[in-house]
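Collaborator request, handled under Task 6.
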Amino acid sequence: MAWLVLVASGLLETVWAVALDRSAGFTRPLPITIFVLGLVLSMLGLGVALRSIPVGTAYAIWVGIGAAGTALVGMLALGEHASLPRLLSLVLVVAGVVGLKVFH
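Structure tokens returned to the collaborator:
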């Protein structure tokens, strides 16, 4: 169960990062609300996962999911440049996250 909570928390990291971008410097109420809720739930989930998963492993996986997810949303939905080197770099991040889980 801790691993599912950790993955969900990583996905919520993507939510709050995108909401932060969309808040336009904390001037738009809805994205600010989504940012705060996403951030709080993401941190709570990470805290719960840390009860069973070592901090180094959990934090790296949480950040990896959030970073890769945010980069993908940027490329797929927000018009950020998608190039082969960037996509390969994301594959490496995902491979690292999978490796941390497999060798846990």
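The cover message to the collaborator said: "The longest helix spans residues 55-77. Residues 22 and 31 are 6 Å apart (CA to CA). Please let us know whether this matches your experimental observations."
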